Amino acid sequence: MKVLSELMGYRESIKVLDATMRDGGLVNDFYFSDDFVKALYKTNIEAGVDYMEMGYRASKKVFDESKFGKWKFCSDDHIREIVGENNTDLKIAIMADIGRHELDDFDQKVNSPVDMVRVATYIHQMPEAIQMIEDAAKKGYETTCNLMAISTSQKENIDVAINMVCQTPVDCIYIVDSFGAFCPEQIARVAEHYMEVGEKYNKKIGIHTHNNQQLAFANTIEACGDGVDLLDATYLGMGRGAGNCAMELLLGFLKNPKYNIFPVYRFIEDYMLEIKEQCKWGYDLQYLMTGQLNQHPRMAIKFTNDERKDYSEFYKEMTE
User: Taking a C-beta distance cutoff of 8 angstroms, is the pair 129, 121 a contact?
Assistant: First the structure.
């Protein structure tokens, strides 16, 4: 049980990462206007957010550049057009998706506006993920390992994977509820295990949640109460499928006076409501079903794009 005095106070080590452009980019193929990105950058600074993830650095050998906005590839030049030298407390992050990136696309940190490289990987990709983490750390970046879809993995395999990555220079290991399948009680057990390994190797632990069962915020603050320090959120919960933990919920919960929620509401009013009308994300029955069944939301995303409403038939399809 959480101690009330701890919930009333705050932990200095807690950091918030805005993943709106990266996870939200999966909704609109990364077609964010420069005006939107500049306003989001300014808002994160005013709100006291600690990290802003500006997208993927995806390989142009893997993805057709003409089919995506520039934040799918997130070059240093494009980032500089927004942040300049970024003489602020806000740190810039990007994501490398294992199997979909190139080591050569990352310059030395001293030449880049990027502070953190987040490495997204599945368990079977650990050797390549470790290579990416070691390369990024050697170049001077902060690094995280975002081990995806752990709700579908055996505990023994997770143990092997996180112990492998903890022997690298990685700074933070992420709990990633890719399918929005976990509830707070499960998150508490997972967080306890990750924290034990993290303490053994002196690594921080983070969490990234999805809202398939309307538990993204609940799972995030559960992990926070269990000692997890790096918390992901997105404005208006924008993200793939059911979306993510909402920034407005998270900053409203955290008690650190460095966080200021007013700029968040202003940005949502000025920018997110319009983009919400144009793009589709957020809790709905089809995403609930994939979360309950612990399945990837790709079928639910297709259901949404096809504008179907036959939920019971979809459930039958999912369980056949």
Answer: yes
The token pair that represents 274 in the structure block: 């319009």
Amino acid at 19: A
From CA 229, how far away is CA 102, in angstroms rounded? Answer: 29
Q: Which of helix, strand or coil describes residue 8?
A: helix
First to last CA, the chain: 40
Q: What is the pTM of this model?
A: 0.96
**Interval 39-60 mean pLDDT:** 97
Hey, what are 295's tokens?
Answer: 């399945």
> How many Å apart are CA 257 and CA 280, to the nearest integer?
33
Q: Is 243 helix (H, G, I), strand (E, B) or coil?
A: coil
pLDDT tens, residue by residue, 53-87: 999 999 999 999 999 999 999 999 999 999 999 99
Tokens of 90: 């806000």
Q: Which residue is listed with tokens 């609940």? A: 218
What are 189-200's pLDDT values in tens digits? 999 999 999 999
Q: What is the 3-class SS of the chain, one letter each residue?
A: CCCHHHHHCCCCCCEEEECHHHHCHHHHCCCCCHHHHHHHHHHHHHHCCCEEEEEECCCCCCCCHHHCCHHHCCCHHHHHHHHCCCCCCCEEEEEEECCCCCHHHCCCHHHCCCCEEEEEECHHHHHHHHHHHHHHHHCCCEEEEEECCHHHCCHHHHHHHHHHHHCCCCCEEEEECCCCCCCHHHHHHHHHHHHHHHHHHCCEEEEECECCCCCHHHHHHHHHHCCCCEEEEEHHHCCCCCCECEHHHHHHHCCCCCCCCHHHHHHHHHHHHHHHHHCCCCCCHHHHHHHHCCCCCHHHHHHHHCCCCCHHHHHHHHHC
CATH of domain 10-283: 3.20.20.70
Contact 147, 177 (CB under 8 A): no
Which helix (H) or strand (E) is 317 found in, with range? helix 311-319
